[in-house]
Write a structure and sequence with these properties.
This protein is mainly alpha-helical. The chain has a domain at 4-133: Up-down Bundle (Four Helix Bundle (Hemerythrin (Met), subunit A)). It contains six helices and no strands. The protein has helices spanning 4-21, 39-57, 75-89, 107-128, 137-156, 172-179. The mean pLDDT is 91.
Length: 190
Amino acid sequence: MATQTSDLLAAAAPPTVAVVRGIADDQLDLPTPCREYAVRDLLDHLFQVVVNFQALAAKRPVEWADRPGHLTDGWRDRFEAETRRLVDAWSDPSALEGVSPGMGMPQTTVGGMVLLDLTVHGWDLAVATGQPYRPAPEATAALHELVGQLGPQARKMGVFAEPVSSAADLPEFDRLLCHTGRDPGWPPTA
């Protein structure tokens, strides 16, 4: 079975998995557009997101304070496997029903949040490590409304920076990045 969320995650996962697979060990300490995170930290965060949102799809509690180091032997293969599990977890229609007990928001919004992290952090890691990144167009289109909805609270909580000014003629994904407080022209030396 599949849901709209699992279909979007299935489309968004391959570009991010390809970027993760392309990260060399000597790139783990490079800076990323997420100011507090080097590549290693952002990979660990994204790994934790992918694993925790599997549990959130099943409406099980998660612990965000636990920050296990995911970058041990075989982490690239494990990331891909966990991403497949994430898609599977959100393919059950019951995953989208009701309100998340742990997050206090509609499950559909929670599913959108992991789609956002998978997509935007894929770009963060790609630009930080000098890799190409082509987000799934259907994911990008679906995320604009979510970012508009979550933006004010996300900025208040420090999850998003203030929006970066964007021209109307920017590509759709670049406009999405601007709304999350990212500069689409971020240089790796920033």
